[in-house]
Amino acid sequence: MTDPNSIPAPDGPPGLALAARQPAAGASRKAAAATAANFTSALPYILVPVLFILSLTFIPGYFSKGSIVSLLILASLLGLSSLGQTMTIIAGGIDLSIPAVIGLSDIIVTQLYYRHWSLPVIFLAIAALAILIGTISAVSSVLLHVHSLITSFGMSLVVSGIALEWSNGQTSGAVPGWLTSGVSAIGHTGPLPIPLIIIVWAVASVLAVGFMRLTRIGRETYALGANPVAARLAIVRSTWTLVVVFSISALCAAMVGVFFAGYSGIPDPTVGEPYFFLTITAVMIGGTSLLGGRGGYLRTVMGALIVAELTTLLVGVGFNASFQELALGILVIALTSSYGRELKVAARI
Amino acid sequence: MPAQPGPRPPRPWSRKATIAVLAVALSALSACGSSAVTSAGGGSSSSSAASPAASSPAAASTSAAAPAGGSSTEVGISAVPAGAQANYANYQLYAKLYPNAYQNFTPPTGPVKYCESTFYLGNTYQQGLAAAFKQMVSQEASAGRAHSDFIVENSNNSTATQVSQFQSEIQSGCNVIFIAAGSTTAFCSLFQTAISKNVVVVSMDPVYCNNAITVSFDVYENSYQLAANLYKGMNYQGNLLEITGVPGVADAATASAAAAAARQGHPGLKVVGNYTGQWTASVAQTATAQWLASHPGVKVDGIIDAGAMGVAAETALQQAGRPLAKVSLQEGDCQELAFAKANPSLVTFMTDQAPAPGAYAAMNVALRILAGQQPALDTILYPIPGPTAATFDQWYTSSMTTSSACFASPKPALPALTTYLGQFFTGGQAPASFPEPS
For position A265, what pLDDT does the model report? Predict the structure, then answer.
């Protein structure tokens, strides 16, 4: 049986404590490298307040509840859809079916609610479908011995086809008022003057971080992503782990689809398309390695906030869409380059 | 000999390169990915008031290669039947008129195989077009005049893919191909191939070559009217948000140019935000929400909607706790009609660009050519119907809500459209009846 404690702590600065164990020779050089590694590792946490201060500086009247809540709503949509993506990437995979699942979920909730289905039944149906989609992506990846990039992309096409066929351009939909309020900047959650989606994102973030750090399957996810062969030898439950993380990814995407239904109010099978790359962007900017085995959801939370803040800042100061793409691309390159400068494992032991 | 301990070698360049390549690829793909958040808005404080002639796609295309096949000589407005010339105002800014290229067309014998090639099937308009064609082909098949299978190829915004798909449709024996082309010139040689194989090609957007029949409405004139009525409704004063279509697509540039032209001479109007909504409600709503978040003190008085995005922008205003703005709506879909019913004072003008009348017009023209009739020219521009205060109830039904993504029934528009199209054709025997989308 694998001892979860034998797997190194997955997130957080790896260099400093380990570097302290190095022999005296070259210690100063390694200490400097470790300090640099710590700094780059902390960059996402630094960028969030820095971008916020820049927005306050350059956008007149930005420090208002409406602006901040609007920003958090957009970040929540991205952050929730990136939650499962973070886990699949840490496990050494990637989930390209997220946009399609968002679209299908949007269609299901708007159309079935319009036909007077009860909401619990709708949500259960969506959850079951999401778990099925995630399971198929994961199991087919294992059985066919192909990367999940292929299987999840295939699932994406299948799910998109179903959503398009279902909507067929002649659709009517309806959503409950509380769902619309839940993604509105002026919405309330009970007595709290905060829209539901922000609270859901906060709760989901805590659960996700705890899941990855404290549970056996969370640690197995890191082990699988770090070295699949070694993980198998260490009796990590590879298939089960992939099924769980891909199902979580699909469930999160389905949840975003439900919120999008409340957000736009209309059935739209393509509503998730922007998230095809944005979820990966948020994960990368946060500092989770695309190579698997390292990172964490707290970093992706920072990544989602950075994406939302940066684009809002650029819109606010008058840059057009092309420049926003350019700025985001430069940020991705700059941050991923700095993350790549952390100490190698062999240098840390 | 054991390796000497010492400083570790630097990180292998290959891994750095891999990371850099991944990052570059992601950012490049992201740019192509129609990102809602990252595409959200410019916030330019000045309008893009280029002169319409200079910025129109037709003007821009004058330096393009001459049409492949057919005649390269344009015909003038005199080729248009007298009763239709009013619908060709400023046509030079939107389309080119060539002679009919189907003079030697031989109608096929037996059931006709219908196909469609579209550059994008991701929005409700294009889905509605395909659905309307399918319904009409089904009716033709029931009457024994068509194959029951209707083939639709979607290139998902890739012109290169659409070229390939169009070619395969020609080779697969399609007799009629309806095309929503992703380019005004990329298909010219293929259109000529289609003619040589006796295939009727009906384009639902202008193409700048003389070997397909274009059946459309004048986007420039329509956009101008929508904008002019909006400005008039605002008493030519106030702040405007301009939400544009897909960047790089001819219709988007045309609509923007028309809106700018209608603003000329009205300095009280100011475009405070200009961003793309990609003709998709959810994208437009997200972009508008982001613009509002970054412009907390800027009042919005009017919305220039390039199509299918006006109600989404109003929803964003509402969700931000802002007052709703005036808007001209052009889709004529259920949510627009429901919004107009609930907010009559905000909607300054409406047209019904629902896909069903457009599909009906294209099918009508195809059936006439299949029946041996000859059009007067290759570009048929038809008038856009639209509800007025007096006729609003012909379009609106009480089941429509702002959450409806359906389209109103096309029935009110079809009789006049049939009569209008008839004046373009001579010779042959017009079909006794035409299939109608529901």
Answer: 81
* CATH, residue A100: 1.10.3470
Separation between Cα atoms, residue B144 and residue B110, nearest integer Å: 9
CB contact under 8 A, A307 and B37: yes
Residue-averaged pLDDT of chain B: 83
> Closest by alpha carbon to A122, among A137, A103, A101, A107?
A107
pLDDT in tens, B149-167: 999 999 988 899 999 999 9
Cα–Cα distance, B177 to A252 (Å, whole number): 41
CB contact under 8 Å between A329 and B20, yes or no, is no
User: Above 50 in pLDDT, residue A144?
Assistant: yes
**The predicted structure's pLDDT at residue B90:** 82
Torsion sign (Cα): B12, B13, B15, B16:
positive
In a domain, A9, yes or no: no
Tens-digit pLDDT profile for residues A25-61: 567 777 777 777 778 889 999 999 999 999 999 998 8
Q: Is residue A230 part of a domain?
A: yes
Burial of B285 (0-12, 13-18, 19+ CB in 10 A): buried
Within A145-234, where are the H helices?
148-167, 177-181, 196-214, 216-226, 228-233
Among B194, B195, B155, B146, residue whose Cα is nearest residue B171: B194
Q: Across the A/B interface, how many CB contacts are shorter than 8 Å?
A: 238
How far CA A116 is from CA of A64, A121, A175, B45, in Å, comes to 38, 11, 10, 46
Q: Where are the alpha helices (DSSP H) in B245-343?
A: 250-263, 281-294, 310-319, 334-342
Residue ranges and CATH numbers for the domains of chain B are 52-57+221-350 (3.40.50.2300), 73-219+354-398+412-426 (3.40.50.2300)
Report the residue of A30, A82, A315, A322 to disrupt the B interface, i.e. the one with the largest count of B CBs within 10 Å. Answer: A315
A148-177 residues touching B, CB cutoff 8 A: 164, 167-175
Q: String of b and e for A231-265 (b: at least 16 CB within 10 Å)?
A: beebebbbeebbbbbbbbbbbbbbbbbbbbbbbbb
Instruction: Give contacts of A 55-94 with B, CB under 8 A.
Output: 55, 59-62, 64, 66-67, 70-71, 73-74, 78
Quick count: other Cβ atoms within 10 Å of Cβ A61? 13
The pTM score is 0.78
Q: Which residue of A has its CA nearest to B28?
A: A329
Q: Is A14 inside any structural domain?
A: no
Asked whether the beta carbons of B361 and B424 are under 8 A apart, the reply is: no
Report the number of distinct structural domains present in chain A.
Answer: 1
CB-count exposure of residue B411 (10 Å: 0-12, 13-18, 19+): middle
pLDDT value, residue B319: 92
Q: What is the DSSP letter of B301?
A: -
Task: Sort out which chain B residues have CB atoms less than 8 A from A337's CB and list them.
Answer: 16, 19-20, 23
C-alpha triplet B139, B141, B142: angle, nearest 5°: 65
Residue B343 near residue B324 (C-beta atoms within 8 A): yes
Per-residue tokens: B215: 């059946």
Strand partners, B327: B303, B347
Phi first, then psi: give them for residue B410, nearest 5 degrees.
-80, -5
Measure the CA–CA gap between A132 and A112, rounded to whole angstroms. 19
Asked whether residue B327 carries a pLDDT value surpassing 50, the answer given is yes
> Cα distance from A345 to chain B (closest Cα, Å)?
12
**Residue B253, SS3 per DSSP:** helix
User: Does residue A46 fall inside a structural domain?
Assistant: no
Task: Of B56, B54, B44, give the one whose Cα is nearest residue B270.
Answer: B44
Statement: residue B62 has pLDDT above 80: no
What's the complex ipTM? 0.82
Structural domain span for residue A329? 62-348
Task: Spell out the residues 6+ positions from residue A190 whose beta carbon is closer than 8 angstroms to its own.
Answer: none
